[in-house]
Structure formats: structure tokens, C-alpha cells
Write a structure and sequence with these properties.
single chain; alpha+beta; outer membrane lipoprotein receptor (LolB), chain A; Phosphorylase Kinase, domain 1; 12-stranded mixed β-sheet; 5-stranded antiparallel β-sheet; disordered C terminus
């Protein structure tokens, strides 16, 4: 009988320790969520000019890419790359259009973004907190500024994850790391320098000499539409997978220039979970004497491809190969049951 009070005491100590651990975790998540929400708001309000550095892998090679970036809320952005392989390439974006200038070929691509779905950014923020659990890991210094280090842990195993560095004073995102579904680092980006001053509005549009001298092409590849609208535009029915991972929602359909160079119409359908996207590309016609379109042969880090009835399908996304394969296989019509 003397052991009974001791056992009860031990159980109470364990329960108390568990309660403290749970409360700390709960408070950490709540604080991290509040920081992420403020970062979403800061992104839409703060002007800045900065130097960004990105590292990513191409095969076994680690590539460093530097760029001069600028933001003028709510819709104006500019990115000017200063290192190879994109040295000299400049991207401008305003409320209505995105411009991408390639100096080597004097090529200016213009994308119409004026008809994107209203409220899309609000939906994406809600998706992030629905699909990811923020966790405050500590403090670091980025661009000589103290920053919160926050890990966005996926609520479902096998999904990609992300780490953010958020400025302690302004709550602007100063850096990020992207991981695939197997927790392998895909890329990391951080600001090396930052100044909270905005460029003049003229700095967010191509200058007159580029507009007059460049060969201009217009594309609606970045213009989101419904599946029915894209099907009508490209002239064949878009086949959709019956399986889409939990947490992902339809993000838009697009016309797409077939990568094999056959100049025949193709389609892209995209799903998003707030941070990451999965894309399906469909080429509707055989390209070479009845063969399936070879655009699926292009090397990609994570992909699944399938051909059905002369049409080629490619799924890509920063998720697991098994997820993409399951989506691809769900394109097949259901087998008929024997009577």
C-alpha cells in the first residue's frame, strides 16, 4: 500500500511535465502563426530595394544566382539578374502585366496578368495556415537585421516544407529555404542587403528604348482561366485526374507552348496548397508520325508521365514521386466490371 501514493505521485509528475511541454508547444505555434500572419501583411505594404542571393542545384552542381530586387506596394515588382546564367535578364511587374526582357536576343515577353482571380493572395495565405503548422525555431541575423527563424511543417507526411526568416522589426520576409517531400533542400534565398526605400514608378516598367527596340511577343500562358475555356482555346478536351492530394486546390488552367517545338497547342492545369504547386501538362496531338509528344523527355527533378490514346501527360511538383504517379494513374478510365 505504501507504493500506491508514490505511484500516484509519479503519474502526476509525468502528467505535469507533459502539460508543460504541450503548453510550450501550443504557445510556440500560436506565436509563430501570429508572426507569419504579420509577414503576409508586411509583404503587401512595405516598399524596399535589395540584393538577393539564391542557391539551387542543377544536377550535382550548386548554382548561385544574384539579383537586384525592388518592390512598391501593392503590385509593382522588379528583378534584375546580375550573374549567369541569367545575367542581364530583367522582369517588371505591375497590376496588369508582367514583362520579361532577355538582352542577348533583345526579346521582350509580355504576359497579361490583369484577369487573375480576385482575392487569390488571400486564398493562398489561408491555404498556407491550413496545410502547414508554423514553429518558431529561434533568431538569426539576415542582411544585418535580427530575424525570426520559422519552420513551416506540413500537416501531412510527405509534403514539401519551408523555412522562413522574418524581420523582427518590419516582419518582411528576408530569406527562405525550400525542401521537397523527402526533406532534401531544393533552394535557399536570402537578402544580402536591403533598404526600405522604393523606386520611382517608372522603374517598374520597361524603359522606352527597350519597348521600341526589342522584339515583342505576347502570351497568355500566365493568364489563369477555367478548364473549359482552355479546352475551347486549344481544341481538345483536358483530361483531369480523379486523385488530387488533400490540401491542394485548383489554381488555374493555362494555354501552354509545347516544349518539343512542334508549335501545336498544349495545356497546363495547376493545383496549389498555398506554398507549393503541382502542374499537369497535356499535349493533345502526336508530334512525329504518330508518336507521343517528346516534351515528357525533358529532365525534371520530380515527375511522372503517361501517354493515353496518343496524348502525352506530364505531372511535376515539389512533392513525392508516389503522389505524382498516383495522380497520373488516376487519369485512366475506371475498368469495367464483368457482368
Amino acid at each position: 500500500m505504501k507504493r500506491f501514493p508514490a505511484l500516484v505521485g509519479a503519474i502526476l509528475l509525468v502528467a505535469a511535465a507533459f502539460g508543460v511541454w504541450w503548453l510550450r508547444g501550443f504557445n510556440n505555434t500560436r506565436r509563430a502563426t501570429a508572426i507569419v500572419r504579420r509577414a503576409f501583411a508586411a509583404e503587401m505594404k512595405l516598399p524596399y530595394t535589395a540584393m538577393s542571393v539564391t542557391h539551387f542545384r542543377v544536377g550535382k552542381k550548386l548554382v548561385e544566382l544574384k539579383a537586384l530586387v525592388a518592390k512598391r506596394p501593392p503590385n509593382m515588382r522588379r528583378i534584375h539578374y546580375i550573374t549567369e546564367p541569367l545575367s542581364g535578364v530583367t522582369v517588371w511587374q505591375d497590376k496588369g502585366r508582367t514583362y520579361r526582357y532577355e538582352p542577348k536576343g533583345k526579346q521582350l515577353e509580355i504576359y497579361d496578368k490583369s484577369q487573375h482571380r480576385p482575392g487569390r493572395s488571400v486564398e493562398e495565405r489561408a491555404l498556407v495556415l491550413r496545410n502547414y503548422r508554423p514553429r518558431l525555431e529561434g533568431m538569426d541575423t539576415v542582411a544585418d537585421r535580427p530575424a525570426y527563424r520559422i519552420f513551416l511543417a506540413p500537416r501531412r507526411p510527405g509534403e514539401p516544407s519551408k523555412r522562413l526568416w522574418i524581420d523582427q522589426e518590419t516582419y518582411l520576409k528576408l530569406g527562405s529555404e525550400d525542401y521537397d517531400g523527402d526533406n532534401h533542400l531544393l533552394r535557399e534565398t536570402h537578402f544580402q542587403e536591403i533598404d526600405f526605400d522604393a523606386l520611382e514608378p517608372e522603374g517598374f516598367r520597361p524603359p522606352a528604348y527597350i519597348m521600341s527596340a526589342a522584339h515583342r511577343t505576347y502570351s497568355d500562358e500566365a493568364h489563369s482561366r477555367s478548364v473549359a475555356e482552355v479546352s475551347e482555346a486549344i481544341g481538345f478536351r483536358i483530361r483531369l485526374p480523379r486523385y488530387v492530394p488533400v490540401g491542394y486546390v485548383f489554381d488555374g488552367a493555362y494555354t501552354y507552348a509545347c516544349e518539343c517545338g512542334c508549335e501545336k497547342p498544349a495545356a497546363q492545369v495547376r493545383w496549389s496548397n498555398g506554398l507549393n504547386t503541382i502542374s499537369m501538362f497535356q499535349c493533345g496531338d502526336p508530334c512525329e508520325q504518330g508518336s507521343a509528344c517528346p516534351f515528357t523527355a525533358r529532365p525534371r527533378p520530380v515527375k511522372s508521365q503517361i501517354a493515353i490514346g496518343g496524348q502525352s501527360f506530364l505531372f511535376i511538383g515539389e512533392t513525392t514521386p508516389a503522389t505524382l504517379e498516383r495522380m497520373a494513374q488516376s487519369l485512366h478510365p475506371a475498368p469495367t466490371r464483368p457482368r
